[in-house]
Amino acid sequence: MKCTIRIIFFGLFCAATLIAQPKVTKIEPPNWWANHSINPVRLLVRGENFQNAVVISRDRSLKVSNIRINSRGDYLFFDINISPRAKPGHYDFDLKTPAGNAKIPFEVAEKLSNDQPTITNDDVIYLIMTDRFSDGDPANNKNVDRANPRMWHGGDFKGITQKISYLKELGITAIWLTPWYDNSDEITACDKPWCPNTSYHGYGAIDYYGVENHFGSMADLREMIETAHKSGIKVIQDQVANHVGFKHPWANSAPLENWFPPFKQNSFNNSVLLSPNASPSERENLLKGWFDFGLPDLNQEEPEVAKYEIQNALWWIGSTGINGIRQDTIQYMPRWFIRDLSSAIQRQYPNFYMVGEVFEEDSAQTAFFQGGKKGWDGIDTNLPSVFDFKLWRTSQQVFTGNKPARALRDVMKYDGLYPNLNNVTLLANNHDTDRFMSLPGATKEGAKLHIAFIFTARGIPQLYTGEEILMTGGHDPDNRRDFAGGWAGDSVNKFSRAGRTADEQEMFEWTQKWIKLRRENRALREGKTIDLFYDNDVYVFERRLGSEVVTIAFNASDKAKAIDVANISMIPAKSVTYFVSK
Ligand SMILES: [Ca+2]
Ligand SMILES: [Ca+2]
Ligand SMILES: [Ca+2]
Fold it and tell me: What is the C-alpha separation between 479 and 429, in angstroms, rounded?
């Protein structure tokens, strides 16, 4: 009423300042599919002046409902029900407010391929940190400083595409890339030792529907995935549903007031979901505490957040044909949300691999998050896989001489805790931890035994780039050095045999050999583990699948060891022997 009177006197002034034209700046997701298991799909539209907006579909095969506008009028949610008969193409919506109209562009995408193979324990996963692997396109290098381990180095999708033949030669069958969501290009300054730094690692998304410009375009990503698939190599996307980067537009103006819980430092008391005895405030801190002030924690208890994240996970699978997901910091999200996310993915892609990072050197804790069994809280997470951090660390300790060989058996005695043991992902190492060759007590012989153990123990083996050529590197970010030869002008090229030292070539061939042995023997992939002998120096076990048996004997000590088990009478110092019977 007040405005009407002012319009009489001030006309244009009122229209321009009080009820301005609506403006649309971002639509998430920008497209969806007919006949998808998620229907209706919920859109989140960013813009300005959405107060009192209505959204109108121009086509009868797309129906709009459940419009919700936030209090500032800069975010709008609505459902679109897509008819099974809707044809692929553009279906723009009209947004109308008392002050004007705007267009919401939207697309029904081509029929999505729903038949990509997923990751199983026939696979060998290889982790690549995109920025540090190979620079195939110097044109996208912005703020690159290879002398500073916290700056961008220039690696990208094209670089990986160009090195697929190297991966094929090694024999791995799947690559896991660190996150490729668009992150901030800014250089963070501070007076701490970790500054200046950048988001080269990808864990601070500013756009869940965009790709990092330093890595290339969406077309470059698709080309990389297609090239990998043609070579029989699957692709795993690193997704981060727990938090965003502080440069995300949401961090300054969240779509809803409860989008992020208020800042509170997470105390990382990680066992409070596992323990039935934890207090509600401890659990609240674990689930809603922020990693640090720079990583706003998303509140999955707000149904709009949970819905957004589930759709986003499915959008990447449908849009790129990826074969699996690695879910970052999964233990800081509610277990019912892990269940809802896993279940929604599996409704569309049955058995689709998702591995959760429960970074805990505790078998009870990691097993608690794998799906297939209800926990004390009544929740079955339905999560296909978790990383086995306890066995990884123990293998490193045994083969650097810091723990007795029997420690391996003493971890695997808890294997019964895992609802699906063969689907547990056994990492050899990753980008957050010191490289094997930089651990106290590390030797080439130890590194070889560690890798042989990762390939002969149960689960899905996962390697970290560069360990196949004995790369060194201490704490993060030193463990993320560039792969030599990935940059034009590098003085050596470790991608080719000619560039590798004798030791590096030995390790490369050793890794190839165990990949091949695993591929040729189903018992190593799916067989039951049976302990035959263990003491401080030696661990002998077999993997048995029907009549197929592989016996493996590790001697981690510096002395040859006489034993009398399974036709083995002597194991040389620091060695592994095996024999196969079918
Ligand atoms: Ca580049
Ligand atoms: Ca960026
Ligand atoms: Ca959280």
Answer: 10
Q: Which residues are paired to 75 by β-bridges? A: 46
235 CA from centroid of ligand 1 (Å): 20
What kind and span of H or E run contains 308?
A: helix 303-320
Confidence of residue 551 (pLDDT cuts 50, 70, 90): very high
What is the DSSP track for 90-106? E--EEEEETTEEEEE--
Q: What is the pLDDT of residues 36-82, one digit of tens each?
A: 999 999 999 999 999 999 999 999 999 999 999 999 999 999 999 99
Distances (CA, A) of 419 to 121, 144, 311: 15, 45, 27
* Nearest ligand to the C-alpha atom of residue 133: 1
Taking only the tens place, the pLDDT of each residue in 246-265 is 999 999 999 999 999 999 99
Distances (CA, A) of 466 to 68, 160, 321, 481, 483: 49, 14, 26, 9, 7
Per DSSP, what are the bridge partners of residue 539?
534, 554
Q: Are 408 and 396 in contact (CB under 8 A)?
A: no
DSSP-based three-state secondary structure for 119: coil
Q: Which ligand is nearest to the CA of 284?
A: 3
| pTM greater than 0.90 | yes
Reply yes or no on whether the pLDDT at 462 is more than 50: yes
CA 251–ligand 2 middle distance (angstroms): 16
Q: Backbone phi, then psi, for 62, in 5-degree steps? A: -125, 120
Tokens coding 496:
């080719």
Q: Could you give the CA distance from residue 166 to residue 159 in angstroms, rounded to a whole number?
A: 12
Give, rounded to a whole angstrom, the gap between the first and last alpha carbons of the chain: 88
- Written as one letter, the residue type at 496 is S
Beta bridge partners of 581: 549
Would you give the DSSP letter of residue 20? P
Q: Residue 487 — left, alpha, or beta (φ > 0 → left; ψ -120 to 50 → alpha)?
A: beta
Among all bound ligands, the one having the nearest atom to the CA of 142 is 1
- Which residue is associated with the tokens 């699948």? 545
Each residue of 293-339: pLDDT tens digit? Answer: 999 999 999 999 999 999 999 999 999 999 999 999 999 999 999 99
